[in-house]
């Protein structure tokens, strides 16, 4: 049965889009049929991170308004045949997105895919609301930093009250994905630790993505990090997270960079 | 351990501060969502009760809740100014 997953955070810049692309690609690499949906109307970026920016013809709002069929708006990834993108509109008014419209698109996507990953815009306004509205599960992307944790707490409150599932008296299953984690700084007391964050948010952990140059390198070239450098620490962390999503019991670790001797000698920092 | 690191590094560990600030803030903000503001209510009533007997600076009354998985703790921190006897005397007279 299809699963609708919202990738959300409240705060901007914590890695929602990067994580949506990496998780979507990792799921597709495991043979699952995946669509990633960009809900950030006016500020779309998922197309760029996936390297599909020049292939966008129709978008989510075109489909809501009946200008285009869903099949016309869906873009198939060039590297992974199981991965599809439904882009957001870059120009149109974000009010063009309606709850009923989103509902019917999600319902149609459920018949075609195993996983529907909704990349939420930042904030707690309409766009973020619509992205989480029909979710079965939620991934809350959190940085080990006070403002991000506070906003995650706020979003958790919304997931528990404003989603269709919550209104039916059911629960949206929630997972914390910690990104940009630096275990060195955390152990020196310079950064909130994983335990701090989990205790404060009282929500189970899906994965820990270490701070890494590979993330920027991947988005620079328009390739999800799990594809661009599968051996890198963040890619391994995303793959572990996906295996947990699929119900596998994977020991929680913070993957570390495998650094070459020269790098080590030159003491080049990973972050 | 932390103190040792602090001595070596010459810097104070800031993460515990972040953690504590968040816990206080979120306990407050969660109170504002849906349920009545429990901490605010407790603070007002404690302040009222103590003020009947001691002259207090309302700013110096801190009520915080630490939510744990099994047990939560309620911490009430009231700073009593020196010269309490005189203020008590004033109240009594």
In a nutshell, what does this entry contain?
The complex is a heterodimer of chains A (271) and B (93). Chain A is α/β, with parallel strands linked by helices and 271 residues long. Chain A has 14 helices and eight strands.
Provide an overview of this structure.
The complex is a heterodimer of chains A (271) and B (93). Chain A has 271 residues and is α/β, with parallel strands linked by helices. Helix content of chain A is 41%, strand content 16%. Chain A has an eight-stranded mixed sheet, sandwiched between helices. In chain A, strand 3 and strand 4 form a beta hairpin. In chain A, helix 1 packs across helix 13. The N and C termini of chain A lie far apart (39 Å). The mean pLDDT of chain A is 92. Chain B is built from four helices and two strands. Chain B is α+β, with helices and mostly antiparallel strands and 93 residues long. Chains A and B meet through helix 7 and helix 10 of A and helix 1 and helix 2 of B.
Secondary structure topology:
The complex is a heterodimer of chains A (271) and B (93).
Chain A: E1 3-8, H1 16-29, E2 34-38, H2 46-49, H3 60-64, H4 70-73, E3 75-76, E4 83-86, H5 99-112, E5 115-119, H6 126-133, E6 137-142, H7 146-159, H8 164-167, E7 173-181, H9 183-187, H10 194-201, E8 205-210, H11 213-220, H12 225-228, H13 233-245, H14 261-266
Parallel strand pairs in A: 1-5, 1-6, 2-4, 2-5, 6-7, 7-8
Antiparallel strand pairs in A: 3-4
Helix pairs in contact in A: 1-13
Chain B: H1 2-9, H2 15-32, H3 38-51, E1 61-66, E2 73-78, H4 84-92
Q: What fraction of the residues of chain A are assigned to beta strands by DSSP? A: 15-25%
- Give the CA-CA distance, first to last residue of chain B: 53 Å
Mean pLDDT of chain A: 92
General shape of chain A: globular
Largest interface, by Cβ-Cβ below 8 angstroms: which chains and how many residues each? A-B, 19 and 23 residues
Helix content of chain B: 40-55%
